[in-house]
């Protein structure tokens, strides 16, 4: 039974947020999506998100967040900075301080405007790669703050919070979206849809999870 309420999904066109979109569509009568445009290294990310939203017949909001680049030039937005994992426990070069705080806050403002009480985000603590604003405790704290700041009754949902990458593939499969997510989403830092370049950290993480899940799937 779907809830007769509206949900807003924070949506990048990647594997995680697309899985969240399907998760939301199964639970809520009305689903809209919001994508933040901050001059991502590849505008193909925005195009990919647009295409998916169109195909799923989801009302899609694209918000200009280019001011983020003024605050935090980093590997996701600048071509001259190399994408790499955090070394020696440091933050990865893709880290933008406060990015998720800003995105979630803007999602709250938009949610308030379009009457969406439920906000869904694909953040995940299991694959915690040093992003403090992807932690469960942060999301819970922000939920309280958003409600207090706008006198709203938001519920922030994080369906992927405790899943690893293989379990995220499994969730997509359970939602009947395995093929869709595999073929149409963009995770690769080099802007290549589906299986991607196979070389960048995002591709490697995606592939490891997929291989692990495919093994489990075969055994079933
Ligand atoms: Zn890649």
From TrEMBL:
Cofactor: binding comment: Binds 1 zinc ion per subunit.
Swiss-Prot/TrEMBL cofactor(s): Zn(2+)
One annotated GO molecular function: ATP binding
SUPFAM superfamilies assigned: Adenine nucleotide alpha hydrolases-like (SSF52402)
Residues the entry annotates as binding Zn(2+): 188, 197, 200, 203
EC number(s) given by UniProt: 6.3.4.20
InterPro entries: QueC, Rossmann-like_a/b/a_fold
Pathway(s) of this molecule: Purine metabolism; 7-cyano-7-deazaguanine biosynthesis
Keywords from the named record: ATP-binding, Ligase, Metal-binding, Nucleotide-binding, Queuosine biosynthesis, Zinc
Domain of life: Bacteria
Catalytic activity: 7-carboxy-7-carbaguanine + NH4(+) + 2 ATP = 7-cyano-7-carbaguanine + 2 AMP + 2 diphosphate + 2 H(+)
EC class (word): ligase
Binding site for ATP: 11-21
Gene Ontology biological-process entries: tRNA queuosine(34) biosynthetic process
Assembly and interaction partners: Homodimer.
Function, as annotated: Catalyzes the ATP-dependent conversion of 7-carboxy-7-deazaguanine (CDG) to 7-cyano-7-deazaguanine (preQ(0)).
NCBIfam families found in the cross-reference section: 7-cyano-7-deazaguanine synthase QueC (TIGR00364)
UniProt family annotation: Belongs to the QueC family.
Name of the protein in its database record: 7-cyano-7-deazaguanine synthase
Source species of the chain: Mesobacillus campisalis
């Amino acid at each position: 039974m779907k809830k007769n309420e509206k949900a807003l999904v924070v949506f990048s066109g990647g594997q995680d947020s697309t899985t969240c979109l399907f998760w939301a569509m199964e639970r809520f009568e009305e689903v809209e999506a919001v994508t933040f445009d901050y001059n991502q290294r590849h505008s193909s990310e925005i195009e990919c998100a647009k295409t998916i939203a169109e195909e799923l017949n989801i009302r899609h909001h694209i918000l200009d967040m280019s001011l983020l680049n003024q605050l935090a030039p980093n590997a996701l937005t600048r071509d001259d900075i190399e994408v790499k994992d955090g070394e020696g426990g440091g933050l990865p070069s893709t880290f933008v301080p406060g990015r998720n705080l800003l995105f979630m806050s803007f999602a709250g403002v938009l949610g308030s405007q379009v009457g969406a009480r439920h906000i869904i985000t694909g953040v995940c603590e299991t694959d915690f790669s040093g992003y403090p604003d992807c932690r469960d405790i942060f999301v819970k704290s922000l939920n309280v703050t958003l409600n207090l700041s706008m006198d709203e009754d938001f519920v922030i949902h994080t369906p992927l919070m405790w899943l690893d990458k293989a379990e995220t593939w499994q969730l997509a499969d359970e939602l009947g979206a395995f093929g869709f997510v595999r073929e149409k989403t963009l995770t690769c830092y080099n802007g290549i849809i589906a299986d991607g370049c196979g070389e960048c950290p995002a591709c490697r993480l995606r592939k490891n999870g997929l291989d692990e899940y495919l093994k489990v799937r075969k055994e079933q």
